[in-house]
Fold this sequence. Notes:
alpha+beta; seven-stranded antiparallel beta sheet; 241 residues; 6 helices; Glucose Permease (Domain IIA); two-stranded antiparallel ribbon
Amino acid sequence: MSDVKDIVPRKPYPFETAPRNVDPFKAAIESMHLGSRYFGAGRGTAHVGIDLFVHIRTPVQVPAEKAVLIGVTRSDSIAGITMGNALVLFVPDEKQPYFLALLHLDRKTFRVLREKNIGDELSAEPGVSRIVAYTGNSASGPIPHLHVTAGTRFQLAGKLYTAQEFMRMYKEKDLTAAFLRPLNPNGRSGVVSIKPPGNGIIKDKKGLLAAGYLDPEELMRKGLRFSTQPPKSREKLAPLR
């Protein structure tokens, strides 16, 4: 049995030592590559998103200028199978529409958004708080984090949809609650998936891109934004670093 004095103390994550006046997501984004849980960097299989390490119950503002809530899962995560405690959004970006999933959320999230809100369009208004989620640790990992996955394809009720299809419906005002709610499984079942079916094991970033996943870090360079604070009047939705 090892002596207690031989145990090497864990190095604190940046969010644990960041000054109080620093946005938690700023520290999380800047430290993302210190670990191995960013897009494509997995252990055996590719990691399909990025992990932003922040304290539990950190508020998440609307991350895009506009987003439509299309899916809710209110159950714990089962690695590689379900998206527990998750919100799935459609971002109607003219140049690159995509689906966005926020995973491992705190249950406090569902006091803000739940099944009844499916079909609602959320918007980021300068200076106005638009909290959509609270980060958690439903994956039961050692460090709480927000997992972010994005893709151009989405499986809903067993059918595969593309972001271009959803963009067409969005423009034609057909992306409604009446369309989405019957397709969304019971939120407690935990089966909502942004993972395209039948791709087999994906081992690297190249395979992820070929399967229809998008690099969230690249999306942040184009306008996706994670912050605890609403955008300022002259602030463009852009990465914090």
